[in-house]
Write a sequence for this structure.
């Protein structure tokens, strides 16, 4: 639910600060739900980049790629990595 709240805040409401908070909450809760949390990491990296929090966005994207190396094949991930200088 926290991930869904992040998507709603990001996509429908345009509230990036609320989206970042929701994605962070999803990352905290994902182990309890048996989920890897990689989707939340990528989403938070994207939001943090849009907010101008580039160091935090880079850290999230690096963690995402460490856990989901196949993500390097995704065009949107490559684009984000390029914008972040990774």
């Amino acid at each position: 639910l926290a991930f869904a709240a992040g998507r709603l805040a990001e996509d429908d409401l345009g509230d990036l600060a609320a989206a970042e908070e929701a994605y962070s909450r999803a990352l905290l809760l994902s182990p309890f739900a048996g989920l890897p949390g990689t989707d939340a990491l990528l989403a938070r990296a994207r939001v943090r980049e849009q907010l101008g929090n580039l160091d935090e966005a880079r850290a999230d994207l690096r963690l995402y790629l460490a856990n989901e190396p196949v993500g390097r094949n995704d065009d949107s991930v490559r684009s984000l990595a390029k914008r972040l200088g990774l």
